[in-house]
Amino acid sequence: MEDEDRQKTLDLVKELVHRLLSHNPATPNNAARNPNPTDLNNSFRYAVRILSSRLTPSIAPDAAAIAESIKRRLATQGKSSQALSFADLYNKFASKTGAGSINNKWAVLYLLKIISEDRKVSQASHNFALHLPSLSLDDRELGGESRNFRRGEKGWEDGVLMVAKDPENLREIAFREFVNLAKEENDVSEEVLVRDVLYACQGIDGKYVKFDADLDGYVLPENFKVPRSTRTMVRKLCELGWLFRKVRGYITDSMDSFPTEDVGTVGQALCAALQDELSEYYKLLAVLEAQAMNPIPLVSGSATSLNYLSLRRLSVWFVEPMVKMRLMAVLVDTCKVLKGGAMAGSIHLHAQHGDPLVHEFMKSLLRRVCSPLFEMVRRWVLEGELEDIFSEFFIVSETKELESNVSQKGKESLWREGYRLHSMMLPSFISQSLAQSILRTGKSINFLRVCCDDRGWADAATEAAAAAGTSTRRGSLGYGETDALENLVAEAAKRIDKHLLDVMYSRYKFKEHCLAIKRYLLLGQGDFVQYLMDSIGEELSEPASTISSFKLAGFLESAIRSSNAQYDDRDILDRVRVNMMVQSTGDRGWDVFSLEYDASVPLNTVFTESVMAEYRRIFNFLWKLRRVEHALIGAWKTMKPNCITSNSFVKLQGAVKSQLLLTLRQCQVLWNEMNHFVANLQYYIMFEVLEVSWSKFSDEMEAAKDLDDLLAAHEKYLNSIVEKSLLGERSRPLYKSLFVLFDLILRYRGQVDRLYEGIFELQARNAVSLPSKDKRKSSKQTAKRPEPPGSWVGEGRKALTQRAGEFLQNMGKELGAIAKEYTSLLEVFLSELPVQQHINLKFLLFRLDFTEFYSRLHPAK
């Protein structure tokens, strides 16, 4: 079928050529009906070659515009009725579609217009040779045998009729003169310069325009005679070639050095985007080179095509490519020393431009450049994977081989030290808060996977992607989609952080462990602490080097079984252990004894070694306070069953008896002062410090939205206890004064024990001289008390009285010295409380001096 149509077409073309040659006035009359077969065949082949070519008119294929031009031309010629008829016919012609309609309607209209113009010209000149202007061939093509006209005949030259108002062809003469003048003024024709400029724009040296390395640019040598305006224009046009060399050199160097760390995936994406732009640039140059093959009118009078290329036309063609190439050259200069997120951020800053062309160009470039960066963000937020071979991402891993690192220390530092933000690689289009959210979300996934051995985060990530309207597939995020990125990060952070806290609270019982630390390390379990201190006190009074930690562990277990602590979870109780601190010369068991709580993964993320060291400091302080309280209670127990009013002392001398009563009263008064101080300090620490801080910490635990909030709440809780308990750096002088007071109270306890041991011995010696009834009563009280060497029991009454007086006098002096020192130290301690910055310490001062006794006793100077 196609062969038939082709044959019909060829037959019609041959018939048209035959008719045209038959009407050629140059053909003899006897050959009018039968043209020369050679001329007919040559003309037929030439016509077929023209019809088979892809040449198109240099006009836009717009049927409506051509129709409007024809209608306007008819109207201007006074043919209004024909213009209306043409408009009606065109509307019918344009509205016809479907089978049998013509697709290229503009081509038909253009053909009709050209035929009409040719007919008008032929009628005006009465020369029918214009019926076939494009089929006349020169002597070389037709062989010179069928040509019956000569080249130099007027009105017919190379198939083109020279039509002019002047019969002498003055226009042709002017053309020749202009050509001669141009040759005299220029050593290089404009066609050659255009070709050299096109070569230079491809980075290639032309015949005249070459690259000068010293001047770093393309130059036209001065020894060629060229007008200054032409030389300036060539230099401006060759700037595009200089920019092209810079961009191409950067691409070549980067791709040759890939995959080194200096280039990276973002740099490779930039090179790919620049290469695509250069490909479009190459296409433009190919079109321009095709037009440069056509001669330039005004220089060559034989030029017939409008698609020629001059330097001025080239400058117009180069306007947009010059803008893009300058932008690419600027980016190349900027990005030479940058990579990764820093490179993307720098390009983003150049995109903030008011010119729509520049803005769109940079935006399209950024879509390609930022693709690897956004893929890293997607994988980190939804999968917790950090694939950053070339250190381009704004999140940096500080832990090597986290998957294989199973050590306790490595997992403990995973959250706090495993990952961090690299501010130099943070692009300017990602805010600091968004970067922090991205960092925390990926850290949460890694924490769940490595430390908690949990896989529930995958479902949370999928739900987050669905809620944000994106997918978990590669390429779901890109530049310009900042809102989508923020929504994805917000949804992922909310779900993954919630899942992490659920795992910490439910599976690992974080709240229960915090409460256990409060009860055992902060001595909040009263019955347990009291039983432990009663049972272990005698053992801790021994030198530290002689104490066995295993024996102390037995006391700890006994205290747990004998108190309400036995009802706690066994896992929690097993974590409470005895810890003997580093010993020094002369240390007693009280000085080195401590309790510790074993926090395993993932609890050790919160209870790190430094945190547990702070808990040990607080325990040592509270343990010392409890020890002092326990010592005062023991002193009270010693003083309570005294026999001061017993009849055993009736027969003592008045001076000794008076001295005894004075000493006992002095001891009791001093005990009351010390007990008042210790009791109020104990109340302040246990209730206004520990309980208040715990209540606030519990509320903040409930309000925590992520692990960072939980860590911050615990750190605030611990710091609050340290500061309020006088353990902070600002309270160090006060802390030292307090411990001096504690040591003095313990010294007082030793003096009380010594005093009452002497009193009991005096009672036993005095019982010898009592009546039998009193002897029996006194013997019951002293039967169980051993008689140490050098005691007073076997001595005479006079010597007993003398030694008793001396003993009581010495004890009174020592107690007086302790009381004086205590008063002085307490005054110093109370004077330092008002100047402390923490407001809670002022409440402690109020409790200690609520009657203003000390204020009146020691008024401020």
From TrEMBL:
Ranges of compositional bias, category Basic residues: 774-783
An example Gene Ontology molecular-function term: gamma-tubulin binding
InterPro entries associated with the record: GCP (IPR007259), GCP_C (IPR040457), GCP_C_sf (IPR042241), GCP_N (IPR041470)
Domain (Gamma tubulin complex component C-terminal) ranges: 512-854
Keyword Cytoplasm applies: yes
Localisation: Cytoplasm, Cytoskeleton
Pfam family, one: GCP_C_terminal
Gene3D superfamilies per record: Gamma-tubulin complex, C-terminal domain (1.20.120.1900)
GO annotation (BP), single: microtubule nucleation
Chain residue ranges for the region called Disordered: 771-795
Domain called Gamma tubulin complex component protein N-terminal: residue spans: 194-505
Key words, A-Z: Cytoplasm, Cytoskeleton, Microtubule
Protein name per Swiss-Prot or TrEMBL: Gamma-tubulin complex component
